[in-house]
Amino acid sequence: MTRYEALANAMAAEIRSGSLAVGARMPSLRQLIVQHGVSQSTVFRAYYLLEEWGLIRAQERSGYYVARGAAVSGERMPGPARTLADSAKVDISELVFSVLEAAKHPGVVPLGSAFPSPLLFPLPRLAKSLAQSARLISPWSTVVDLPPGNEALRQQIALRYLGMGLSQSMDEIVVTNGALEALNLCLMAVTRPGDVVAVESPGFYAALQAIERLDLRAVEIPVDPLTGLDLDALAQALDRHPIRACWFMTNYQNPTGATLSLEKKKALVELLAQRDVPLIEDDIYGELHFQADYPLPAIAFDKKGLVMHCCSFSKTLAPGYRIGWAAAGGFTDKVQRLKLMTTLSASIPEQAGIADYLQHGGYDKHLRKLRAALRAQRDAMDAQRGAGCRPAFAGRCRQAVISCGSNSPTRSTRWNCTGWRSNRVSASRRGQFSR
Fold first, then answer.
1. What is the domain extent for residue 276?
2. What angle do CA 171, 175, 178 make, to 5 degrees?
3. Per residue in 119-144, pLDDT tens?
4. Disulfide: which of 98, 135, 172, 407 matches 117 by Cβ 3.0-4.6 Å?
5. Number of domains making up the chain
6. First CA to last CA distance, the chain
7. Residue 335: which residues within 8 A CB-CB, separation 6 or more?
8. Closest C-alpha among 139, 141, 125 to residue 359
9. CATH number at residue 13
């Protein structure tokens, strides 16, 4: 355990025991440095971790305070039953379609589906990159940029991995039509009809839709809102079922918001490596972290090429462009061929446009602004959440909830099952929320 994790755990214990009451101001930076003999960076990272756990919240120019949700954070939420279910067929699509239909209305913040507000993205600047790259695009790109995809874009994606401290070969990156296609292609690459796939419970609806469409069977692995995936339950399931693949979110799991610790990510990869079971890692929200650094994905611990890391720019830059990728490891050739056999190629002009933006458009600066906006929206929801939103949920699931936030000029007036039903208000009142 690192020093900042030890410090965070010590303060978390004080909060959960009631020694630090809800609303109490947390010790200052200087106090903690002197008391524990640690650096300023260690204290900051400890506070970021506590904030991620939903135990504290920052107030501008004031410091950190014990969050309201912390009053119940010490009590374990009712966990999923540890008795392992049999693998089962999946039938969920009708329910999903009804939720997605509700998300189409501009006047509703779609909390039932993780669609960010389009107003949060630098679309005019991205359009300039698209126009610039379109003027310079070679006629041969229609052939050259077939899977694995645009070379300049794959180089830029490889550099993003390098920024995380990971050496990812661009030759193992396959550009796709969004992360969802990347996830589906990876699943197709390692399964056949009738195979068993381990999924999270609760989990992302699209994983169940993919299993349903491919005529696979699902076995549920419990996810705890605080600690994430239950590795003991996974080990039991691997012993009991002929699991051919796992589809998990290790960072900001949907819908719980849980992030696996580095130790658990490493243990997960090692557990699956012992049985040669591939891991399809959905890391769509990794760039939306509120901490100092990107939380390392499980692929960082992969030594056998069994982890397929899937991501996209849909939640961070350009939702409508539908550009994603799979770092497919030992399954790269299979994924690339499946891409060619199904949808042939992601949009070639849009691949070139995003590559230009990543190189010249200030993507990291945009991400800092995006995270700040999402954080402000989360804090506004925390402050004015409706009676129907339980404090326990808000305290533990904050990272998952904010990714759905809207920056539209609306005021929330009523809670319903799909989000906040909104009324138009003047621009001067944007961002004000009421029940």
1. 93-103+121-360
2. 150
3. 999 999 999 999 999 899 898 988 99
4. 407
5. 2
6. 42
7. 174, 182, 185, 186, 189, 308, 326, 328
8. 125
9. 1.10.10.10
